[in-house]
TrEMBL record:
Quaternary structure and partners: Homodimer.
Protein name: Glutamine--fructose-6-phosphate aminotransferase [isomerizing]
MF-aspect GO terms: glutamine-fructose-6-phosphate transaminase (isomerizing) activity
Compartment list: Cytoplasm
Whole-protein coverage range: 243 to 606 of 606
Species of provenance: Ruminococcus bicirculans
Amino acid sequence: EKGGYAHFMLKEIHEQPTAIKTTITPRIVDGMPNLEECGLTYDRLKGYNNIFVVACGTAMHAGLVGKYVLEKIGRVPVTVDMASEFRYRDPIIAKGDLVILVSQSGETADTLAALRMAKERGAETLSIVNVKGSSIARESDMVLYTHAGPEISVASTKAYIVQLSVFYLLSFAIAYAHGAISKEECMRLTAELQNVPNMLEVVLKTPDNCQYVASQLVNKENLLYIGRGLDYALSMEGSLKLKEISYIHSESYAAGELKHGTISLVTNNMPVIAVATQRELLDKTISNVKEVKARGAYVVLVTHGYINVDDEVADYKIGLPTIDDLLMPMLTVVPLQLIAYYTSVLRGNDVDKPRNLAKSVTVE
Ligand code: F6R
């Protein structure tokens, strides 16, 4: 059942290229995103001027990537909330706003309650859900299924990456519908997205660098993940994955915010995983990386393979293939998943069933 892999988590990490293909291929027609299956025509997409994304945990992290991408190229304001916060903060939702619910299981109690509230307040609701016929899928006005197949490991991997792929298609489509990008640009980005599965196969062929990093982390009790922009959103996902299955405490931090307090934690006993794939922000992030390195941190830098990294910046580099910066999260998440996985294995934990956690959180 694990197809020769030691754990479901590792199997599911390796299923990611196929899961992406299955999710995006039917939704690309003549090189353009096509989401008409749920009524999302370009005309309809043009009408959304205010978007909310509501979800929990890893699904919420996918929403954060969605926000960056949508705002960057679509110029439409997007607010991301954890469902457990959104429900109780009396959010200002107007008729005609779009509320997007993201959920692997489609049964998460807080996300379902947020959906019901959004509907009551007259918003249009779109769910991005993996489990067919689940409550969130049934109750939302529109649904775009992710086609990850069953996810058994409690720690979510392939469900996250397909959620990202749907956010990309949606963002390209909304950006085009709003006239924020040309048809050519929309087609170029869509083609880039179609390249991701093959590039991921390459990333998955070299897990030994992540195994090495795991061997450096295994005896630590605290860790920091840092990044800016999209890389910060990825840091959050990397940190959650590690915490969840390795039981090492970790925190993700916006790199530029470190010096406002958190850098006082940095010593030679606080490894830092720095994510720096956004080339516009590279110099800024590298200067923050040097600051933690100068305070004795063991630094792992996750960046483009072609970028040279000297000793004063990082102790170890994980190099990724290069794709449009906007799409780098699709590649970057994989080493973060693998680092968490191998660290958990080395610590002898029950990787697929971490303590205190359930696959589907149906109580609030
Ligand atoms: C982390 C993880 C959780 C879920 C969260 C939402 O690996 O699996 O954070 O992402 O409980 O679950 P769904 O997506 O089913 O709503």
